[in-house]
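Order emerges. As here.
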Amino acid sequence: METDRIINARLIEDRCELHYECGGLWSVDTIDEMFEVLGRTTVPLLKAGKPIYALGDFSRALPQDRATAAKIADHLQAAAKVGFKRSAIVNASALFKMQYRRVASGIDVEFFDNRADALAWLREPRENAAA
């Protein structure tokens, strides 16, 4: 099992979508690296006051320790306050799904086995799409 941290992100601005891949083992000291990449990538949407819809590839994501998971939960709650609307997660392990459901409490998140189904759900008619 690979524990090296990875984070890659790109923005599909016209669809208000953040597409990213993350994985490995993070800590409370290193998780801000991930938050910085995701935040930097979404700046155009944040500046325009647009919603953010995320597609995450969690093929290499590992469950995190309790303190790191708590920091992720705090980040997700803060992101929701600035426009994070919905998250489609692809290829997460069963254990990771359980942890992510806990840390993403109150966030509209679904898990999928393939990218096509995830994108279809993510792009379902969106309330306040012009917001």
